Amino acid sequence: MFVKVCGLSTAESVREAVEAGADAVGFVLTASPRVVSPSQASSLLAAVPAGVSPIGVFRHEPVADAVAIARAAGLEWIQLHGPRSRQDVAMVHDAGMKLIRAVTMGAAPEEFEDWGEDLLLIDAAVPGSGEAWDYASVAALPALQGRHWLLAGGLDPVNVGGASRAAHAWGVDVSSGVEASRGVKDLAKIRAFVHSAKGADAPV
Ligand SMILES: O=C(O)c1ccccc1NCC(=O)[C@H](O)[C@H](O)COP(=O)(O)O
């Protein structure tokens, strides 16, 4: 199970996610209670070892702006929320970067198709809201079969196992569910989430 922990803003929280076994860490570079500046994100990279992917998260920014900001921060991966096109995916790759394309669980069927992104992320209606949804509703979508995609929205250390199994997810992403209060990460919850998620696809 691939695990991404998002909305990290301190070196301690990055280290906790990495030591727990996270595969990716997310830095929010758009309007959010979790926002970090490009220079803060750049500093946090010191706590990210090779083999763990640091990802810059954007919402309404045009692709060119997101690419420029991520590049200034030293990031090679970006995560784009908001309405996007196949041309946007190509622009990210033409810039030499990798892409997580985020769609909401109620998106039109064509948005779940493979547009060439490196990973698809299926989220609640409002990103970073901590809002749970009917995870099983995407399990049988033909466009997802055999794909690498991340489940997000309202996950926490307790529900991640059942949610990922219900959705047939390849990986998971969390932010609110590992916080003590909005925008403030809880180190014990980060560790518990990564361990729960990593154990979720083990035989029971
Ligand atoms: O975290 C935010 O505030 C945010 C703002 C704008 C775009 C994306 C944002 N977060 C993305 C994520 O944290 C995750 O990809 C995902 O939405 C998980 O959210 P949560 O339900 O809080 O676990």
From TrEMBL:
Q: Which residues form a coiled coil?
A: none
Cite the N-(5'phosphoribosyl) anthranilate isomerase (PRAI) domain residue spans from the record. 3-195
- InterPro entries assigned: Aldolase_TIM, PRAI_dom, RibuloseP-bd_barrel, TrpF_fam
Which reaction is catalysed here? N-(5-phospho-beta-D-ribosyl)anthranilate = 1-(2-carboxyphenylamino)-1-deoxy-D-ribulose 5-phosphate
Which keywords does this chain's UniProt record carry? Answer: Amino-acid biosynthesis, Aromatic amino acid biosynthesis, Isomerase, Transferase, Tryptophan biosynthesis
Q: Does the keyword Amino-acid biosynthesis apply?
A: yes
Entry's family note: Belongs to the TrpF family.
What is the protein name stated in its UniProt record? N-(5'-phosphoribosyl)anthranilate isomerase
Please name the gene that encodes this protein: trpF
